[in-house]
Amino acid sequence: MKNGKFLTMGIESSCDETSVALLLEGREVLSNVIASQIKIHQVFGGVVPEIASRHHLENVNQVTDQALKEAGVTLDDVDLIGVTYGPGLVGALLIGLASAKAYAFAKNIPLVGVHHIQGHISANYIQYPELEPPFMALVVSGGHTNIVEVNDYNSFEVLGGTRDDAAGEAFDKVARVLGLGYPGGPLIDQIAKEGNPEAIPFKRVFLEKGSYDFSFSGIKTGVLNYINSEKQAGREVNRADVAASFQQAVLDVIVTKAVHAAKEMKKDKLVLAGGVAANSKLREMLQEQCGDKGIQLYRPAPILCTDNAAMIGCAAYYKYKAGFVSDLTLDAYPNLPLTDI
Ligand code: KG4
Ligand code: ZN
Predict the structure, then answer these.
(1) CATH T-level fold of 133-300
(2) Which residues form the Gcp-like domain (predicted)?
(3) What CA–CA distance (Å, rounded) separates 140 from 254?
(4) Does the Cβ of 31 fall within 6 Å of ligand 1?
């Protein structure tokens, strides 16, 4: 407890960010320390799981100390520990879990395992103190592309997901083909601003009528084929046009499906989540479409879109309030499905 308020510590290590956060009453962030490994993985063009685990191990205690210090609290003040236990890289998840379990055991603090996507959705509760379920959520990250009906804090219906690549993965792969670097999403977002989104008509893949699923592997091949054929014809590839056209094709599908889902399921709120939610064009397109359809759009600040522990702490708080606790046998699940608690 701090000043009579419930204190949660969140821990996140599912991919390449080691993060620890402290929150009051589930939503008020006192600290949210994120140690990013992006620079380390950049030379490899993507996250190397073994290297990620090693760095989580090196970082986790320091990040925890810093988060406690910034929040002006000690472990003795902590009422609850929330930790990501899936989905993610198993070696990376295990570091956050081992650390959370050690603190929980040593200080006799209740522990709650959190699904990473529930965390991403919960970032919106932090950004918007008045937000409450039910609502529709669009989760777009490096590992996931999901449309989720959120009926209550701990009640979810996954309406659709990707059948191959996640949206962020497609951004990263196309950026690599264009020689832009890693992670590709922000770089495509940037360069696309100078390109023509209608220059190249990449195919919009909507799948079967009524489906909320996605498929992005085709467009990735489409970009590759386009670049090869331009090169063979001796023409210079306009990277800004390719980036803008690719981005537009992907976002046309994502935005159409998300807004349709909200309308279809009679939700007047649409919540954006995940790393790709930082994309400026996506935010702009959703704002426009939601405005037209009378849907209230919620968009967390970019720092809450990326992987962070504040969102995990927030989700843990609501699971705990609903009576859920994990025990010390809690394990890592790389393919954990999103279900109700
Ligand atoms: O949620 P996140 O930090 O990690 C996962 O849980 O996957 O998402 C990372 C993904 C990467 O693929 C990155 O390229 C993408 O989010 N991303 C973006 C932008 N910023 C990050 N994609 C498009 N536009 C952006 N501005
Ligand atoms: Zn994530």
Answers:
(1) Nucleotidyltransferase; domain 5 (3.30.420)
(2) 28-313
(3) 9
(4) no
